[in-house]
Amino acid sequence: MRTRPILQISLFVAAWFLVEYLFVRPLAVAYVPLFAGGFILWWFTTRRASIDPHRIIVPYLLTVIMFIAHVYEEYRAYSLGFPSITPLPATFEQMVTFAASLAPILWLLGAVMMLKRLPVGFFVASTFLFGMMFIEPSHLVVPFLPLWSFRYVGGMWTALLLTPLGWYTFLAIRREIARQTDASTHPTQATGSQPARPSSNRL
Questions:
Q1: Which domain holds residue 13?
Q2: Do the domain assignments include residue 187?
């Protein structure tokens, strides 16, 4: 049923918001644009075509590893007195819990659920990639604001690799969707098998 994945995703989102609120209080609202963007990405990609998660799991996990390095750079810079891209109404402990602990847990949980071929897993992956492709590039814009100026902000250098990795993983998913769509449209060509020839019976 088409409504079942949406119900599962809704329950998962509600549960995750509760977890975030228990640990980081107001920072939980940061997942609102992430989940909204992730749902749109999922709706137009892996919701429409079932793909083999093993074909995209390596670039996905490499992107998660790069995200962890990115978070380290952010908080290392913060501890050294460099500015962040946005001031957050939270303590340093809450910010570390939010980005360095709970976020990687969520992205890795998404990988596990993808490998189990659960729709929620592909939704979480879409949420992660939405953030990497459309939100993390802010680390490459803010250093040049106001215009004609430059200042280092935490996470800037690793964002140079993180955002392209996010796009690479997304394009890998798109290629796999195209491959699956082509396979379902032209099953004979996709498998490389030849149509059976009619047998000739000689009398």
A1: 3-179
A2: no
